[in-house]
Amino acid sequence: MAGHNKWSKVKRLKAVTEGRKAKVFSRLSREISMAAKSGGGDPTGNARLRTLLLKARDANMPADNVDRAIKKGTGELPGVVFEEISYEAYGPGGVAFIVKVTTENKQRAAQDVRSILTHHGGHLASAGAVAFQFLHAGQFLVARDTLGEDAMMEIALEAGADDVIVSEHGYEVRCDLHRFDKVSHALEQKGVKPESAEIAYIPVNHVPVTDPHVAKALVALHDALEELDDVQHVFSNEEDATATA
């Protein structure tokens, strides 16, 4: 989707404007709390937390905010109890969506996601109806000028990555969920700082989008979903190269 492929989204998120800082900080706080809750508050043994702390630093998130988020996750500070939920859906043109939310109110989150989908020509799908169209895996995006292709391949594959995809944008490293920590640590040890590092839903099958009206509707749907406070990530399988929105 024009403007919505993974590399474009990363560039957009790195250019955080003043008006969006509060929203970005709120989402990072939730993710940091969840990471600390599941893997502990020590980043040396928690790859997911280390990755989020780097994101927080890049976004200039205040250290006090980061510290509070970690302590809420570990239970050292009282706070709202969040949980992570994934919604499967279809958008315009039959494009599959997986929407990940972190919320303290499941009913509100479901209603908000359903409302946005309906308003933009989509609908929620039953569990399992969409997930099979995605690979649930660790994903690292590394800029092309970071290091040479052979070196990138060697580092990633020796760490247990399943694949390294080379494009004009850079390197996309994919790994099994359980190897995320090992691959992340290997990249860190070699001084490689990914543009993005996360557990992602990567499209296996892409849906071509040739109708400009559908393309614009998909862009609007992406934007509306990402504006919801509870939404952390939006994954979809439209074909990037075909849309002209």
Entry summary:
The chain is of the alpha+beta class.
Write a structural description.
- This protein has 245 residues and is of the alpha+beta class.
- It has 3 domains: 6-74, Arc Repressor Mutant, subunit A, CATH 1.10.10; 83-126 and 206-238, 2-Layer Sandwich (Alpha-Beta Plaits); 133-203, Alpha-Beta Plaits.
- The protein is 42% helix and 21% strand.
- It has 8 helices and 8 strands, in the order H-H-H-H-E-E-H-E-E-H-E-E-H-E-H-E.
- It has helices at 6-14, 21-39, 47-58, 63-74, 106-119, 149-158, 180-189, 212-227, and strands at residues 83-90, 96-103, 123-124, 134-143, 163-166, 170-175, 196-203, 231-236.
- Strands 3-1-2-8 form a 4-stranded antiparallel β-sheet. A 4-stranded antiparallel β-sheet has the order 5-6-4-7.
- Strand 5 (163-166) and strand 6 form a beta hairpin.
- Helix 2 (21-39) runs antiparallel to helix 3 and helix 2 packs parallel to helix 4 (63-74).
- The protein is globular and about 45 Å long.
- It starts with 5 loop residues before the first helix and ends in a 9-residue tail after the last strand.
- 36% of the residues are buried.
